[in-house]
Every structure is written in structure tokens, then in C-alpha cells.
Amino acid sequence: MYKTIPLTLVLLAVPVVAQVKGSINRDAPTVTRSIQFKNSGALTVKYTAIHFGEGAWRGIIKNTGSHERFNKGAENRPIGSIKTTVVATASGREIPVGNYDLFFTVNERSGFILNLKNKGDSEAKSIRWRMAMTETKTKNTRFDISLNPGAKAGSCSITIAFGQKSVTVPLKLGAKKEDKKEGK
User: Fold this and answer.
1) Taking each helix axis from N to C terminus, what angle separates 4-18 and 67-76, rounded to the nearest 10 degrees?
2) Is residue 93 part of a domain?
3) Cβ contacts of residue 20 below 8 Å, gap of 6+?
4) Which of 46, 85, 169, 182 fits 32 for a cystine, CB–CB 3.0-4.6 Å?
5) Would residue 182 count as lying in a domain?
6) Domain residue limits at 100
7) pLDDT tens digit string along 46-89?
């Protein structure tokens, strides 16, 4: 009986670690995508293109008893990062200049939530967005983030896709501030 208790504890911890480090993701590549505007700064997204156990990720929302553990694990082991050289605005939320951990948490009512947490400020609260994902015609076998230029200068969008679901978030990058030299 005592031998089964440690195994049970290990199995309970698997979903948290498996987000990025499970055996299915040993070969998961790191992907970097970047967009640079001449007068509006730059945005870089770096992430691990994970598998998520043949759709087992859908069960995370239903398993409300594991949300707290999953969310803490996601924050401690982010799936990626975002760096912006200028203030960016995404769906009405401001993202100050900086480097951010990117991770997803889950909430019973809201589903999956995208989180950005400033790497340089351990006390900072995450900037969060509800992931209103829609069905897609194609199936992504790995987690994918694409970064696409918009029609206007300084505008772009991030599309987050997994399985047969995706969400596109429009972004606006602020004007790059010119270095001002004394006397000019």
C-alpha cells in the first residue's frame, strides 16, 4: 500500500509538468517569431511548440479540482515569452515595454486564459486575456503562435492555435521614441 502512495502523487503532478516537459514533448521545438516596424518598434514571441496528449488538454477545464495546481505549474514553467520594445495594446489592454513570461491558466467559467507576467518584476500581476477560441478547419498537431502584420503601420495580430481551435488577438505597437541628445 505504501508503494502506491508515491506513485499516486507522481501521477497527480504529471499534468502540471506535462504542459511543457512531458515525454510527449521531449522533441518539442522552440519557435521564435518577430515583427519589426521601422517607426513603431518590435515585438518578439518565443514559445515551445508542445503536443498536449491527443486532446487531453480539453479535460483540464472540466477537472476543476486540479485548476489551482495546473495554474501554479503553468506560472512556474511558462510555455514562452514576449518581448516588446514599445508599449503595445492588445484587445484594449496595455502591455508596457519589457520582457514577459507567457503562460496559460484555466478557470471554470472563463476557460483558458492567456497570461503575460513581467520577468523583471516578481511582484507584478499578470496581464490576462480570456481565450475565446473558435473552431478551425485545420488541425494543429502542436501548439502554434503566428505573428502577422496588419494593414496599418504598427498593427499586427497574434494567432494562437491548438488542435482545431484558435484565437486571433489584434495588436497595436506604439510609436518608437527617438533618442534625444542634449542640445538638439
Assistant:
1) 60
2) yes
3) 28, 48, 50, 77, 79
4) 46
5) no
6) 4-132
7) 999 998 655 666 678 888 888 999 899 999 999 999 999 999 99
Residue 103 lies in a domain: yes
User: Angle at Cα 79 formed by Cα 41 and Cα 7, nearest 5°?
Assistant: 170
Residue 23 within any structural domain of the chain: yes
User: Which three cell numbers mark 73?
Assistant: 505549474
Residue 61 pLDDT: 80
State pLDDT tens for residues 1-58.
444 333 333 333 334 344 555 678 888 999 999 999 988 899 999 999 998 655 666 6
CB neighbours (10 Å) of residue 81? 18
Question: How far is Cα 139 from Cα 164, in angstroms, rounded to an integer?
Answer: 5
- Report whether pLDDT(142) > 70: yes
Torsion angle (degrees, nearest 10) of CA 123, 33, 50, 134: 90
